[in-house]
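hiii, so i know i said id send this last week but things got crazy w the move. better late than never?? heres the sequnce for the chain we talked about at the cafe, plus the structure i predicted for it. fair warning i was half asleep when i ran it
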Amino acid sequence: MIVIYAIRIARAPLDARLKKRHAGPLSVATGAVMLYLAWDWLRPEGLSAVYFVGEFAGVLSVYLMSCTLVLATRLMWLEQWFGGLDRMYRQHKLYAVWSILLLTPHLLLHFFSDFDGSQYGYAHRAASVGMGHLLGAVSAVGLLLLVLISLGQVGRILRLP
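okay and structure toks below
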């Protein structure tokens, strides 16, 4: 789909500036596809599909949150690849919302699955009381609150500027 979209943009009779504004979102989407291919290629044998989906949802969530942080820097040379500062902000918000949405299946499938510890994993039931899982849950709740506050309707309800 990404290739078809890129070909359609390249063949469209647009000015070079207008074509350039699609390079940022296309590069983020291409990076996500490359991340999936690498994650699938390096997947160990015997790992269940449910566990893999939960793991990849977490990795893609971190990737999109990293893209969000890069867009939050408001680099001037980056604006042209997204079509201006307003479109860059829109992509920033979109990537943040998607990263939180992908964090949910990660938490549900990865931490609460019945993966009982093969030779490549560990027992989630025994490790779920560890400090890492506690910090992960606190971080997920904090990120969710940040995204909820940044949404327009929630900010108006809470009367935040």
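btw The longest helix spans residues 85-111. thought thatd interest u
miss u guys!!
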